[in-house]
Amino acid sequence: MLEYRIDRRSGMATYLQIVHQTKQALRLGLLAPGDQLPTAREVVEATAINPNTVLKAYRELEREGLVEGRRGMGTFVRRSLGGAPADSPLRAELADWARRASAAGMERDDVAALFTSVLDQHFKGDDT
Amino acid sequence: MSTPILTGPRWVTVRQHRRVLWMLSAVVATSLAGVVALRGWAAYGADLYPSSPDGPLRSAMDVAGIGMLLLPLLVGAFVAGPMVARELESGTYRLALTQSSTPRAWLAAKITVASVAAVACSASLAGVYRLGWMPLNGTYQFHWADRGPYEATGTVIVAYYLLGVAVGALVGQLVRRTIAAMAVTGLATGLVMVVLGALRWSLLPVRTLTTPTAPGVPKLPRDALMMDLGLTTASGGRLPEGACFAHTRSMSQCPPDMNVTGWYVDYHPVTHYWPTQSIETAVVLVLAALAVRGAFAVLRKRHP
Amino acid sequence: MTDDPVIEATGLGVRYARRRGWALRDCSFRLPAHRVCALVGPNGAGKSTLLALAAGLLRPTEGTIGAPPREEMAYVGQDKPLYPQLTVDETLRMGRELNPGRWDAKSAERIVGEGGLDGSVRIRSLSGGQRTRVALALALGKRPRLLLLDEPMADLDPLARHRLMGALMADTADHGTSVVMSSHILAELEGACDHLLLVDGGRVRLSGAVDDLLAAHCLLTGPATAVADLAAHTVVESRTTGRQLTALARPHGTVDADTWQTAEPSLEEILLAHLRSPGAPALALAPATEAVGA
After folding, report:
1. Structure letter (DSSP) for residue C16
2. In angstroms, rounded to a whole number, what is the distance separating the alpha carbons of residues C66 and B68?
3. Contact between C34 and C209 (Cβ < 8 Å)
4. Is residue C259 within 8 Å of C223, Cβ to Cβ?
5. H/E run at residue B33
6. In chain C, which residue's Cα lies nearest the Cα of A42?
7. pLDDT at position C291, please?
8. How many helices (H) does chain A have, and how many strands (E)?
């Protein structure tokens, strides 16, 4: 089951961290349709955050149609996200590209800056 | 120790102070064993101490009398200090007073447990004391009206224990410091005992015996407690017993111009013992009730 | 969703007989139910006094405070008062004896059990974290509607703090308990709390849902010459460095985006700005994000 890591220093709202990490898990295929998300109780017991924060994150995921809450049973994944599971060809290509960038003598920050600028160019106005 | 009576705050109180409750039982048991042993000694030890076989019993009962008078002070000090003031001082009252049971029940449990223990302890100790005192009854310092035997053989001792509990419950809340509350309670309870001890023989009117001057000082009934002795005059006045001696160098020969008619002696007969005990017990219980009322009033004012 | 307030204070004031001045004055606020509220402020601000008032341990000198009755409320004092001579098991039994008909032995035992505590150990030989755990078990075993915790996490190591906060949050998730906990360190409570009450100098400076408070404030950076623009907004604190002016403000209407760079402040920044500016007006946000009296 999914385990959330809450970083208080990240500056990102806690509920958004849960939303992001859930989506990340969906993208990487760690969560598949039908899988159950941890209950609010389980999340707060492990992370010591407010239960309403977890519920807010789940509501947000529900609003986006990614999960659905079933009364008295829990929250379940409805659909997966993106087409790049952990073992997809796209990931392999990106890994290959990163290797080449490294071989070309680029630093980690240079690579990240380059990657972000390309992302910004292709995914304008889409921040999730 | 889990009878249906022992639930809620009372259970908590007993659990908190069970050590002291055990200690009280041990004191009673030890003193009983001691008195039985000393009486045995007094009865069969005549061969060893032919002059005064009851010597050890006498000394022990002397100490026991003082102990009986001090215990109410100690019981009061315990209620005031460890039972009440310590909770206020250490802050555990905030734990006790935020439970479902009421603050009233909290204080009531302390007073109830302490009172039951005090009555049981004082009544048994009074019984033990009486056991040791009986063979000494009427001898020097073991007269029924002497301080020590008077309290320890009667009902007042139980009342004084209860007074200690009540004063402790009140002072403990007012002083709120363990040691100070203990000291104040001990002093206050002791003061009441001293004052009532001084007043107790004024509670009932004395009986008076008058005799002519000639044969000498009047003879009192056996066991009577003499209160005052002196000379009566023709006008009905009273003179101190040595009034004539100053003039004639004789106690019973008086100058005619003094108009002395005879001796008088004021006394309490032994039959005054129980009436005096009853009145004093009632007075002490009323004081205890007032202190308990005060204790609840203070609590109500602070924690409605 | 309209929540009934679980605590409602009006014109609350407390004056201690032995100390000079007011420990708390003119405090009016409402805490909605089913929230976890952080009661923050510097040392000596009146946090403990406020909690003792809510717990009914103290009578207000003036004003009123409405809170659930004794049976439906639990309180854990700053020094975690427990009877040192009782064992852990006896302490839990005490919870049952003093809360007949309400006591949830399972919850209490689970919290104690999760700490790996031996029931036969006396309270006096427990560590700080273990004591806090027992005090919390005693409080939660009562199944309170409102739980008041005075500096619950002080003098706990980070792991114990995290575990206890986790246990507490799990309980609120299960039962919807309303919680008010105080601390002079916001970081201790941030993340766990969704409501905030800032007390400073005996007065309530901020009260409202954390999200609403964040939304109501704005960090503005712009030229010092445009200072007049700020008059339209409530400025909590402003600083001029050279030609640049930085301000934490509560904007009213729109902020001119050409002159001012805006950023969302963190909760900590909002708190610090208020503590540095004792004269800044108080803000009380009702659950529906409308200002009650600024």
Report:
1. -
2. 51
3. no
4. yes
5. helix B18-44
6. C170
7. 39
8. 5, 2
Report residue C77 as tokens. 């004092």
Chain C: give the shortest CA distance to residue A28, in Å. 27
CA distance A24 to B72: 76
Per DSSP bridges, beta strands C195-200 and C203-209 are antiparallel
- Closest CB to C81 among B16, B90, B303: B90
Q: State whether residue C133 is helix, strand or coil.
A: helix
Domain regions of chain B by residue span = 8-202+295-302, 207-271
Q: So what's the pLDDT on residue B56?
A: 80
Beta bridge partners of C73: C146
C-alpha torsion B55→B61→B67→B72, nearest 10: -170
Give CA–CA dist A122/B209, Å, rounded: 127
- The answer for B44, left when phi > 0, alpha when psi is -120 to 50, beta otherwise, is alpha
Q: Residue B257 burial (CB < 10 Å; 0-12/13-18/19+)?
A: exposed
**DSSP state, residue A36:** B
Strands C62-66 and C5-15, by their bridges, are: antiparallel
Of C75, C97, C102, the CB nearest to B8: C97
Give the DSSP per-residue string, B217-284. SPPPPTT-EEEEEEEEETTS-EEETTTTHHHHS-SS---GGG-EEEEEEEEE-GGGHHHHHHHHHHHH
Whether the CB-CB separation of C260 and C226 falls below 8 Å is answered with: yes
For C72, nearest residue in chain B (alpha carbons): B100
| pLDDT single digits (tens) B119-154 | 999 999 999 999 988 888 888 888 898 888 999 999
Q: Which residues of C touch A46 (CB under 8 A)?
A: 166
What is the value of ipTM here, to two decimals? 0.86
Question: Looking at CA atoms only, how far is residue C141 from chain A in angstroms?
Answer: 17
Continuous H helices in A48-128 = 51-63, 89-103, 108-122
Q: What is the C-alpha to C-alpha distance for residues B173 and B89, in angstroms, rounded to an integer?
A: 10
pLDDT in tens, A5-14: 988 777 788 8
Q: Do C194 and A46 touch (CB under 8 A)?
A: no
Residue at B150: amino acid letter: Y
